[in-house]
Colicin V production protein
Amino acid sequence: MTESMLNIILIVLLLLGFVTGLKRGFILQLIHIVSFAVSFIVAYMFSGDLASRLRLLIPFPDNIQQQSVASFVFDSGTIEDAFYRMIAFAILFFATHIVLRLAGSVLTALTELPILRQLNKWGGGALGFVEVYIIVFILLYIGAVIPVSEIQTPIQQSSIAINIVQNTPYLSSAIQDLWTQYGVM
């Protein structure tokens, strides 16, 4: 996959997020974003505990050279620690997100009020873009940790992917700290 191909895929995903948000509307999209934020916080707070348990269940591949993997993302820490934290983070994040989205879908009846319909639509588009951006951000970080050159090379060669991973306010440093400083919160 070339740099331009990954850049095109990322741009299309972000546009699809905007269009999806337009269709969902502001209120439903807000429910999705709030559940996203709460899921991130839950995963951030409890991934260390789960990671230590996952070490007992999932063996770390022996043949990985820790120095070469994801060096463009991580400055310190070991890939093994990041590997278990990433898996724990993903499990907690997606489980919490699904539960909260199901619970929040009850509030969507408010979106049919005539006065709110247009504002609801455009606000939803903006929030849809933000939601997909955060998903893409997390997937790119996960891809950077997976020790497979077919995944890492396109990410390292994509200017958009590198920019998302390294320059997203707050999230770039928070994820790097979370996944590289095992056991430290």
Q: What stands out?
A: Residues 3-59+67-180 form one domain.
